[in-house]
Amino acid sequence: MKRPSLLGAAWLVLKKDWQIEWRTRARLTAIIFFSLATLLLFSFAMGPDIVTLRAHAPGYLWLGLLFASVLSLGESFRVEAENQALTGLVLTPVEPRAIFIGKVLGNASLLFVLSLVLLPVAVALYDVDLGRDPLSLVLVLFLGCVGISAPGTVYSAISANARARDVMLPLLLFPVLVPLLLAAVSATKFTLQPDPQEQLGSWLKLLTAFDLIYLSVGFLLFPKVAEED
Amino acid sequence: MTPILPLVVLALVVAAIVGHVAVPAVRPWAWKAVGALGAAMLVSLWYFGLYWAPPEQFMSDVGRILYVHVPHVWMALLAFTLNVGCAVAYLMKKSWVTDALAESAAEVGVYFGAVGVMMGSIWARPTWGVWWDWDPRLISTTVMLLAYVGYLALRSFTEDPERRATWSAAAAILSYVSLPIVWFSVRWWNSLHQVQSNPSTVDKPMVAVLRWGAVTMLCFLFVFIVKRYEIARSRQTAAMELPPLEAPRAEVA
Amino acid sequence: MALALEALDISKRFGARWALSRLSFTLEAGRSLLLTGHNGSGKTTLLRLIATASFPTAGVLKVMGYHSQDEREALRPLVGLVSHASFHYEDLSAAQNLTLTAKFLGVEQPASVVTGLLDRMGLVARADSPVRQFSAGMRKRLAIARLLMRAPKVALLDEPFGELDPAGIAQMEGLIQELQRQGTSVVLATHLVEQGQRLTHERLHLEGGRKVTPV
Amino acid sequence: MKPETRNRLIAIGALLVAASALGWIAFGSIGENLVYYWKPGEMIAQGDKAYGATIRLGGIVVPGSVVWNAEHTSLTFDVADSHTPGAPKVKVASGMTPPQMFREGIGVVVEGTYSASGTFTTNRLMVNHSNEYRAPDGGMSGEWKDTVSQADTK
How many CB atoms lie within 10 A of CB C161? Predict the structure, then answer.
């Protein structure tokens, strides 16, 4: 019997999350409609001024994603808490760090799909121009989704077993994500609007650095919270 | 020299707290002595800050809030650094001492930080014309406070002591790691608002009073943390004692 | 003779309550243990400690000679737990759940192993239905299939007879005896004392988290 | 390799990644790019490229150019490259109440758009309010330093 390596096990965890998602499709559908509603609410709240809407579109887009991510992260660990499946994985045994990598990628991929779905909606509601630099835009979205998922996975593993879990997750997660959001909003802005001073590259580097920090710290911390003492 | 100074102060605070915790003989009186010193320094700080120091050239008397506002935020930063140190120590080797110290440091840090931000807001009103502004320092300090409020909420919502200790240690590390990132990122996001002051950009008498204020607050920081630590320990020990070897009679019957 | 279990003054606290208090006992490898006691007496907690799902607050627990906390990575492949929490993903089918475990364990030819186990536990007809639609008895069968795949040295069974039909109970007894023939130490927690004593060598009775002599 | 050694190596590796990324943010050159701004002369030299896009403009508020509207809620002023008379300058219209430190001769950075009509419209005005705390008779009373360039070098 040859046990899978760290990355092999992570791949199995990721595939398992995709399988669950594919079988129910409930989570993706729910968060798509939730974030659609959020984006619509922003446009209602801001009124019909299309110039303001277009200028603030990156912010609304990321807030929509952030709110949806709380639901999606919570659900991702509700699945693991049901029947104590996460404990089952740890006892199989699967290395907790492999679970972390797999769960982060699973959550990030779901958010990334969501963000791609939201792009045409942003065109319709806020009249943004996607054609300017689509590749960089997709890269920004991807880096941002990974950045939300890395601390999100640690915190939702904690809050899935805590009292008042629905309050705990955003309370813990949002402050930590502030810098990532600032960077993601700015980077998105410069892919949707002209960027004569060429700031996009720096924001992308910054997003990459944030992702690296969150991923490595989460990687170190997750084993501590995944196992009961 | 400036970059090392906070570390030296941190080391002194840690040494003082460890000494207070470790040496039973000093426990009854040391905190009282430091508290009395702090109170005396506070009284003289009123004199130095309000009369002795010159008014600031543009903000006149309003600028005097500097002498309490800045030390408060410094103390918050010190306390949070102590907190993360304890969190790392706890994860490396479990100990109820570091857990209790982490809890008290975080709570005292939130107190100092909240008061510091409030004073900053009061200062902002006459100088900037608004209570609140998109300022890197305001945003980063507030985000820091929110992160630690979340930390304290997590602690109070978790009943099992082991889980509470482990989970909150993880939350403490993530919050602390995000601090420098928040600080740098909001700086760039709003950019160029201001650069850090250092002794060469502040007049000498003002530096002196500021340092006086910082030492005053250090005394209070020490007393608060030490007393809060004792409370945390006494709450723990009730739960920490092992059950008796033989079952109490009522339990068997 | 090597020891399968060695508990040295172990205690486990949840919040302010002691679920297990100052427990010491040993079990020789290959022998089986019956765990009895009322609801809330600490049986499940003890099984979870042995399975390394949780660790003692105080004291040392050794399973197959390994320290349950410090050497848990080496220990985990050797123990298997069938508990109230079935460890299954509700939205995956029975076959998917087992295949997942098989792949994590590195079983060769997982597909045929899984089919064989499902057949043995009488679940082949429902292999592709999600676990969410399973009855309690079917879940238990699936959990046992998972245990058999792991081929543990120490098998921990928490109320294995509950929720099973008479045929299932007979099969369960057969499986326990088969495990014992393979040299596995079975720790059996059940309220059915007579049935349990027939299947095991020793008995540990818990009351309020303490080891007591059964009355 | 023993599993414990391997685990420890992985952990140290992750720690190194985190530390170097943090160092990259703190001491790398990413940040300096992000506080980048054009001086009026540079912006004018860009020609059409500068029109319509959100850009940052930094310079000195030209003394005597500050004009408030009747309600004192918006203002226009000129921003010049430097204190030198005749330096390139741009008219800025701000819809934001400026910070109290705002005054003639001070360094400012504004974020907004430049239009072909020659007016820079901004809703974000940042005064380079200095990090200095001085008594009124202290070294630099009355005379403003070029704080923009000072912050730039920081």
Answer: 17
Which of B162, B238, B243 shows the shortest C-beta gap to C22? Answer: B243
Please state the pTM of the whole predicted model.
Answer: 0.87
User: Nearest-CA neighbor of A176 among A152, A158, A142?
Assistant: A152
**B220-234, pLDDT tens digit by residue?**
898 899 889 988 888
In chain C, which residues have their Cβ closer than 8 Å to the Cβ of A24? 91
| D112 in a structural domain | yes
Domain total in chain D: 1
Domain boundaries along the sequence of chain B: 4-233
| Cβ(B229)–Cβ(B100) below 8 Å | yes
Chain A residues near residue D47 by CB distance under 8 angstroms: none
Nearest to A219 among D14, D34, D52 (CB): D14
User: Could you tell me how far CA A100 lies from the centroid of its own chain?
Assistant: 14
Domain that holds residue D122: 35-128
- CA angle, C129 as apex, C125 and C130 as ends, to 5°? 145
- In chain A, residues with a C-beta closer than 8 Å to the C-beta of D53 are 193-196
Sheet arrangement for strand C210-212: C79-82, C154-158, C185-189, C33-37, C202-207, C210-212
Q: Is residue A1 part of a domain?
A: no
Q: What angle do CA C91, C96, C98 make, to 5 degrees?
A: 115
Full DSSP string of A4-19: --HHHHHHHHHHHHHH
Quick one: tokens of B53?
Answer: 């120091």
Query: Do strands C185-189 and D119-127 pair parallel, antiparallel, or not at all (unpaired)?
Result: unpaired
Residue with tokens 């008779």: D137
Separation in Å, CA of D101 to nearest CA in chain B:
7
What is the H or E stretch that residue D68 is in?
strand D67-68
CA dihedral of residues A186, A187, A191, A197 (deg, nearest 10)? 80
* Paired tokens of B214: 């910082």
Tell which phi-psi region holds residue C59, choosing left (phi > 0), alpha (psi between -120 and 50) or beta.
left
| Domain limits for position A50 | 6-228
Residue whose C-alpha is closest to residue A34's, from A4, A5, A67, A81: A67
> Among all residues of chain D, which has the CA nearest to that of A179?
D25
- What tokens does C9 get? 């003054």
SS3 state of residue C10: strand
Residues 6 or more apart whose Cβ sits within 8 Å of residue A135? none
What's the DSSP call for residue D105?
A: T
- Specify the CATH number for the domain of residue D64: 2.40.50.140
Cβ-Cβ contacts under 8 Å for D82 (sequence gap 6 or more):
D59, D60, D146
pLDDT (tens place) for every residue of chain A, 229 residues total: 678 888 899 999 999 999 998 888 877 888 999 999 999 998 888 887 888 888 889 999 999 999 999 999 998 888 888 888 998 999 988 989 999 999 999 999 999 999 999 999 988 888 888 888 889 999 999 999 999 999 999 999 998 888 887 889 999 999 999 889 988 998 998 898 877 777 888 889 889 999 999 999 999 999 988 887 6
Q: In the numeric block, which tokens belong to residue D134?
A: 């001085």
Q: Is the peptide bond before A93 cis (omega within 30 degrees of 0)?
A: yes
Nearest neighbour of B245 by CB, restricted to C13, C16, C22 = C22
Q: Give the Cα-Cα-Cα angle A16, A20, A21 (nearest 5 degrees).
A: 115
At the top level of CATH, the class of B4-233 is mainly alpha
Q: How many residue pairs from chains B and D have C-beta atoms closer than 8 A? A: 87
Beta carbons of C19 and C44 less than 8 angstroms apart: no
Q: Is A139 exposed, middle or buried (0-12, 13-18, 19+ CB in 10 A)?
A: middle
CB-CB neighbors (< 8 A) of A163 in chain B: 157-159
**HSE value, Cβ hemisphere, 13 Å, CA-based, for C31:** 15
SS3 C66: strand
User: How many other CB atoms are there within 10 angstroms of residue C58's CB atom?
Assistant: 16
State how many domains chain A has: 1
